[in-house]
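Sequence design from tokenized structure. All designs in this work follow the same two-part layout: the structure record, then the generated sequence. An example of the structure record is given first.
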């Protein structure tokens, strides 16, 4: 099937009715996740990590989404501690690969952004002529776009790969291959949904940044609030992408599992 045909079909998920349905499903999934005792205990641990060290909080933001993905994926099992422990034990190698890739990608993105800012600052201090500002702004914009696209691709692919692996327990390579295929076949729809997520939460984030500055005299409260806000964003995004994953696997099953018999 031609890629343009798949992209056109994926855009059918972006109608106002579909956006409304996915929004409601995402809110319901977030509510269900926050009812799970294991997740509530993990939120307590995240808060303690945030209070102890900022570096630990960064790592926690990459590791705890694994629990959130396990909590949101469809399963007939009761999602208690036994469920999480069994899936962690069965998927320990995949979880290790996922965590390493997530942490490495995060450091690459942060390092790349820091390098861009450093280069531009040096250029600006070295050349004060107004004419040099135009190419600087152009280069800066291109690099920022590349960074955003890199993050845009890496997040859903990582989540989809873990979901594919948890569903099939096959090879890690197959999980990432299917995740890349799902992202590529449905890139317009995924891009629109993530953009809507970003547009919704960017204004909220700016208001919270101003509020965190206001309470900066209370570093204990500011650190805790910042950590829980980022964790809530992570849970909402995972619930959104998991609902997309469920819908796409249902509609495009033969693309990811050719030769399998699928009975609706």
């Amino acid at each position: 099937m031609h890629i343009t045909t798949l992209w056109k079909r994926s855009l059918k998920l972006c109608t106002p009715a579909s956006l409304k349905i996915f929004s409601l499903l995402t809110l319901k999934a977030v509510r269900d996740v926050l009812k799970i005792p294991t997740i509530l205990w993990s939120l307590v641990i995240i808060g303690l990590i945030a209070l102890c060290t900022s570096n630990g909080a960064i790592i926690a933001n990459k590791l705890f989404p694994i629990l959130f993905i396990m909590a949101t994926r469809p399963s007939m099992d009761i999602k208690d501690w036994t469920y999480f422990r069994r899936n962690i034990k069965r998927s320990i190698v995949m979880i290790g690969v996922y965590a390493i890739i997530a942490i490495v990608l995060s450091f690459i993105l942060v390092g790349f952004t820091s390098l861009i800012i450093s280069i531009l600052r040096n250029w600006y201090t070295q050349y004060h002529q107004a004419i040099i500002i135009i190419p600087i702004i152009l280069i800066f914009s291109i690099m920022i776009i590349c960074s955003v696209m890199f993050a845009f691709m890496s997040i859903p692919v990582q989540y989809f790969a873990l979901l594919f692996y948890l569903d099939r327990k096959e090879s890690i390579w197959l999980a990432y291959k299917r995740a890349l295929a799902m992202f590529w076949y449905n890139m317009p729809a995924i891009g629109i949904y993530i953009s809507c997520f970003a547009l919704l939460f960017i204004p909220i984030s700016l208001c919270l940044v101003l509020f965190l500055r206001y309470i900066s005299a209370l570093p204990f409260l500011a650190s805790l609030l910042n950590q829980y806000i980022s964790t809530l964003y992570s849970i909402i995004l995972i619930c959104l992408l998991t609902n997309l994953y469920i819908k796409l696997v249902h509609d495009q099953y033969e693309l990811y599992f050719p030769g399998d018999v699928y009975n609706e």
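The CA atoms of residues 142 and 148 lie 10 Å apart. We note this feature because it recurs in several other targets discussed in the main text.
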